């Protein structure tokens, strides 16, 4: 499963991506189809299909704090930003490797579509 997974392949460097930051646990790269001036995906190096399969609170917490760090580096922390996990069909999840969307640089609507 992880062998053919798109985001596992990006993590391993087999598919190019615009990486913005990485550490031993997380990799962050720009979304190929950005929905805001800043649209970064933060993923764990470890393959986890979605939030439904996540077991490790530290892994999920690291994604959130990694996104907050990137928001500061992108200059959107004070203005505000949105972080989103899409999970399964009703949320429109299309890539089944856990990822946290970091969106900012424009006013966000609420409720989300
Ligand atoms: P989701 O719909 O929550 O599963 O989000 C998947 C996201 O991955 C979408 O916003 C896509 O635009 C993005 N995406 C798909 N393929 C790539 C890729 N090769 N590099 C960067 N982002 C991608
Ligand atoms: Zn994967």
Write out key terms for the chains shown.
113 residues, alpha+beta, HIT family, subunit A, 22% strand, binds adenosine monophosphate, binds zinc ion
Draw up the topology in text:
Layout: H1 6-11, E1 19-22, E2 26-30, E3 38-44, H2 57-74, E4 81-84, H3 88-91, E5 100-104
Antiparallel strand pairs: 1-2, 2-3, 3-5, 4-5
Bound molecules: adenosine monophosphate and zinc ion.
Adenosine monophosphate (AMP) is lined by residues 6, 17, 29, 31-33, 41, 86, 92-95.
Structural features, described:
By secondary structure, the chain is of the alpha+beta class. It has a single domain, classed as HIT-like (HIT family, subunit A, 2-Layer Sandwich). 25% of the residues lie in helices and 22% in strands. It contains three helices and five strands. Strands 1-2-3-5-4 form a five-stranded antiparallel β-sheet, covered by helices on one side. Strand 1 and strand 2 form a beta hairpin. The longest helix has 18 residues. The chain is globular. Adenosine monophosphate binds next to loops.
In short:
This protein is α+β, with helices and mostly antiparallel strands and 113 residues long. The protein has helices spanning 6-11, 57-74, 88-91; strands spanning 19-22, 26-30, 38-44, 81-84, 100-104. It contains three helices and five strands.
Which consecutive residue ranges, at least 5 long each, have pLDDT under 50? Answer: none
Question: What integer value in Å does the Rg equal?
Answer: 13 Å
Approximate shape? globular
Which CATH-level-2 architecture?
Answer: 2-Layer Sandwich
Write down the CATH topology: HIT family, subunit A
Biggest sheet architecture: 5 strands, antiparallel
- By oligomeric state, this entry counts as single chain
What structural class do the secondary elements suggest?
alpha+beta
What is the number of helices? Answer: 3
CATH C-level: Alpha Beta
Order the strands across the largest sheet as they lie in space. Answer: 1-2-3-5-4
What is the mean pLDDT?
97
Number of strands: 5
CATH superfamily: HIT-like
